[in-house]
Amino acid sequence: MFKNVIVRRPAQSLSNGITSNPQLGKPNYENAxxxxxxxxxxxxxxxxxxxxxxxxxxxxxxxxxxxxxxxxDKFVMVTSPGAESRKGEEKxxxxxxxxxxxxxKFIQAPGTLExxxxxxxxxxxxxxxxxxxxxxxxxxLIAALESYNMNGSVIDMKEMLHLKTGLAYLEDNxxxxxxxxxxxxxxxxxxxxIIDEDESYAANCIRVNDxxxxxxxxxxxxxxxxxxxxxxxTVDTSEYMKVDGGLSCLSLRF
Length: 254
Ligand code: CIR
Prior knowledge:
The longest helix is centred in the first third of the chain and has 17 residues, at 29-45. The protein starts with a strand and ends with a strand. α4 links the parallel β13 (211-215) and β14. The chain contains 5 helices and 15 strands. It has a single domain (4-253), classed as 5-stranded Propeller (L-arginine/glycine Amidinotransferase, Chain A). It is an alpha/beta fold. Citrulline is lined by residues 17-18, 61, 64, 66-67, 83, 86, 116, 162, 164-165, 243-245, 248-249.
């Protein structure tokens, strides 16, 4: 069960966020704020306490707070973003994390790691080796996990921005999979829900206690998740999609 969630309000500079989809246009700030309000409301429906941090204009992507820390039951790892414009964002979360964790660890250079590349399945953490997360960063996280009797493994990847761009663990052995992860051997033991190519953005869902948050207007994905017996809440994240962000990126859950 998750008790706490941390989010950061979007900055007006979100329009300068990193994107691989410039053809979608720039995010509209007013809409982004409304969508963020609705995201917070949906999280509250899941029964968690939502801690809302102020916008940080210096970092266009700072609302994607998932990338700056990896929260486990026993410790928190402050990451080291691989994207140049995001370096330093991680420092701004440390004071907040001190309210929740006694054990705070830090990824050290030359290691890089972004939380979007880390997927928790019980005590096991899958770590995607993406353009943002390198082997050194992954090994530092694995060593920290092992010192607390947990473990991790690395996943090679080629196409996706982050591991969780194409994967979401929905508990009960159910895994949402898209694109390059559909036939990845590492995930053979799971009951897979395969995301259609035209809905691949919707692979970035989150299970929060009794509900799965699913992006709005991805009808086939929603149907498949409901058919697996799970309760769905939809949230519109279209403004965040324009800068490659989704439901998981917008929060830290622990
Ligand atoms: C970035 O490229 O860093 C942001 N525009 C999007 C971050 C998405 N975060 C995530 O998938 N965890």
